[in-house]
Specification:
There is one protein chain. The protein is α/β, with parallel strands linked by helices. It has helices at residues 15-18, 22-32, 55-66, 76-79, 83-90, 106-136, 146-172, 177-186, 199-212, and strands at residues 3-10, 38-46, 70-73, 96-98. The chain folds into two domains: 3-102, Resolvase, N-terminal catalytic domain (Rossmann fold); 107-212, no CATH class. The protein is globular and about 55 Å long.
Length: 213
């Protein structure tokens, strides 16, 4: 039997829009738990993922240490996208388990965190550059401005390019789009908005890569 302490983080500004709110995270954790596992406590943090001062997290870690349990989170990107932060938690001497990636090793968690951190930095840099160029051209900036649609397309393209090294071997092997989607989900890789991959989303990525050629 394995004992777990669950930790959930939600952001009040994005919880509803992201589809990764508290209920979804709790559901993911329940799907992960086996019949003989014991969830001894749950801690919920309402705070932006950009901030590292997590009061409830340290309570969860302390509780896990006290009861010889592992810290269980639903998704890595709901926890943090900073490699240094995730590394500091792993150094606390408790096991960190991600329900969405149950077989991931500590090394793999570092890799996924590094990829997410770099992706966030690149998106931020591209957004600032695109907005600055649009402003120079006199484009009206706002929630419905054309420039936002352009940014979304650019983000999707960069996401596709980032996935190409993983997709290419599967395509060469002749795997179906559904099989590729299942493999991506099994690896714990999240879609553009944090969702699961399906045949249609894989097809869209392949089409974007074809447009680039």
């Amino acid at each position: 039997m394995q004992r777990y302490v669950a930790y959930f983080r939600v952001s009040t500004s994005t919880q509803g829009r992201s589809g990764l709110g508290l209920a979804a995270q709790q559901s993911k954790v329940q799907e992960f738990l086996q019949a003989d596992d014991e969830l001894i406590a749950e801690f919920v943090e309402v705070q932006s993922g950009k901030l590292d001062a997590r009061v409830e997290l340290w309570k969860a870690i302390g509780h896990a240490k006290k009861h010889s349990a592992k810290l269980l989170i639903a998704k890595l990107d709901r926890f943090s996208r900073k490699v240094s932060f995730i590394a500091s938690i792993m150094e606390q001497g408790i096991g960190l388990v991600v329900a969405d990636m149950p077989h991931a090793t500590d090394f793999q968690l570092h890799i996924f965190a590094a990829l997410a951190q770099e992706e966030r930095r690149l998106i931020s840099d591209r957004t600032r550059s695109a907005l600055a160029e649009a402003k120079k051209r006199g484009v009206r900036l706002g929630p419905h401005a054309t420039v936002l649609a352009v940014l979304h397309r650019e983000d999707a393209m960069h996401r596709a390019i980032g996935l190409e090294p993983i997709l290419r071997p599967m395509l060469i092997k002749g795997l179906s789009l559904s099989a590729i989607a299942r493999n991506l989900n099994a690896l714990g890789i999240c879609g553009l908005r944090g969702g699961k991959f399906h045949a249609e989303t894989v097809k869209a990525i392949v089409n974007r890569l074809s447009e680039r050629c």
